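In this section we walk through a basic example: taking a raw amino acid sequence and producing a predicted 3D structure, encoded as C-alpha cells. The instruction is simple. Fold the sequence below.
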Amino acid sequence: MKSTILQEIFSRMNRSLDWNDYAIVLAIADAGSMAAAARQSGSSHPTLFRKLNAIEERLGVRLFERLRSGYVPTSAGEEMVAVAREMAELAANMERRLSGQDLRPSGLIRVTTTDTLLFGLLGVEFAQFRIAAPEISLEIIISNDVFDLSRREADIAIRPASAPEPHLVGRKLGVIRQAVYGHRALDLSQCAKDQPAALPWIGPSRSMIYDQLHAWMTRTGYDEFCCCRIDTLLGIYAAVRSGGGVAVLPAYLGEADSTLEKLGNFIDDLDVDVWLLIHPDLQQTARIRCLLDFLVQSRSIRRLLRD
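The resulting C-alpha cell sequence is shown next.
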C-alpha cells in the first residue's frame, strides 16, 4: 500500500511543470514560430522543439497547432499562455521591488537606446561612467523598438520621444537640434543658398520609421531630389560623411564632425526631446540613480543637446 502511494506521488511530480516549461510555451506563443522563439531565447530549434513535445506529452494535451504559417495555441495552449503571462508579470514585479531595495551603487544596469544615440552621444559617456562607477556593469541593447520596461526587458530607456509614457518615470536629457549637413570637400555652401533642390539629397527610405523627417522632406519638396535612400539614421550619416550628398542630421552628429558643414539654420520643426525613462519601482535604486545623475550632469551631453 505504502509503495503504491509513493509511486503515485513520484508520478505526479514527474508530470508537474516548472516555470521554465511555462516560459517556453509563452516564448513560442509570443514569437509565433519555433524558429523565432529559438532565436529570441538563445536556444536551438531542435532543443526547443524537443522541450515542447516533452511538455505536451507530460500534460497529455496538444498546446499548439503546427501550421505552415506558424505555431498557433490551441484552447489548452491559450489557457497555459495566460497563466504564464501572469507568472511572468508577478516575477517581474518582484524583481523590480527587490531591485528597488538596493542601497549600494553596484550590479548590472540594462540600457536600451538607438544606434545613433550610442554612436554620437552616449558611447563616450558610458565609458566614462564605467571608470567613475567600476562596481556597476552595463548591458547595452541597441534597438529602435520601444522595450517594455515594466517587464524588465531593460532598466533604462534613452531615446527620442515627445513625452514619457504615463506609467514610466522620466527625465528629459535635452532637445536634439537638426539641420542639413554635407561634406566640406563638396563646397556646397553657395549651391545650397542658390539652388538647394539641386543638391544631391540623401533621404530616409520608405520603410524607415521617422514621421517628422518624412513630412519635412515632402513639405519642402526635397524628397523628389533624393539620389539615395537609406533605412537608418546612422547609415545616412555614413553616406554624408563619405561625400555622397547632403542630408538632415542631428546636431550631435553634424556639429561634432569637423569634416561636415551645416547648410542653413537649424530646422525648428524637427526638434525632438531625448528622455531617460525608467519604471517607478526602480527610481530609488542606487545604481540606477547613479547612472541617471551622471548623464544629466554630463557637460558633453549638455553641449551637444539644447536645454
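Looking at the output, two observations stand out. Confidence is low (pLDDT under 50) at residues 1-14. DSSP finds twelve helices and twelve strands in the chain. In the next section we compare this with other chains.
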